[in-house]
Automatic annotation (TrEMBL):
<dbReference type="InterPro" id="IPR050712">
    <property type="entry name" value="NAD(P)H-dep_reductase"/>
</dbReference>
<dbReference type="InterPro" id="IPR029039">
    <property type="entry name" value="Flavoprotein-like_sf"/>
</dbReference>
<feature type="domain" description="NADPH-dependent FMN reductase-like">
    <location>
        <begin position="10"/>
        <end position="99"/>
    </location>
</feature>
<dbReference type="InterPro" id="IPR005025">
    <property type="entry name" value="FMN_Rdtase-like_dom"/>
</dbReference>
<protein>
    <submittedName>
        <fullName>NADPH-dependent FMN reductase</fullName>
    </submittedName>
</protein>
<dbReference type="Pfam" id="PF03358">
    <property type="entry name" value="FMN_red"/>
</dbReference>
Length: 100
């Protein structure tokens, strides 16, 4: 009997959206990443916005042009480019999700 063709796993990126001291979001994201990694369909990893330390508005060009001048922006862009799916673990502050 012929073997089933293998399907490449999707890259699932779980983003820790809280950068708050004392946050619980990191442990929630790590828990989810571990659970998702148990599924053969996913290459699962966590990305922490506190570690990336993206500042506000420090690129001179609109993002749509993809003419990034800063290494942190290029790093984030590579993460986005390499991902097939995202899970955002975000807090709710004052009725909405935070900008960072
Ligand atoms: C300043 C502040 C405002 C908050 N506002 C809301 C809110 O509007 N609605 C809600 O359901 N929870 C609210 N919360 C609770 C947070 O969403 C909750 O504590 C969450 O776990 C925070 O995530 P983090 O620990 O990863 O930062 C608020 C918490 C803080 C500190």
């Amino acid at each position: 009997m012929a073997a089933e063709p293998s399907v490449a796993p999707m890259t699932l990126t779980t983003v820790v959206a809280s950068t708050r001291p004392g946050r619980v979001g990191r442990s929630v994201a790590d828990w989810f990443t571990t659970r998702a990694a148990e599924c053969d369909q996913f290459e699962s990893h966590t990305v922490d916005l506190r570690e990336l330390a993206l500042p506000f508005f420090d690129e001179p060009h609109p993002p749509a042009l993809r003419q990034y001048t800063k290494s942190h922006t290029r790093k984030w862009s590579r993460i986005v480019e390499a991902s097939d799916a995202f899970v955002f673990v975000t807090p709710e502050y004052n009725g909405g999700f935070p900008a960072r």
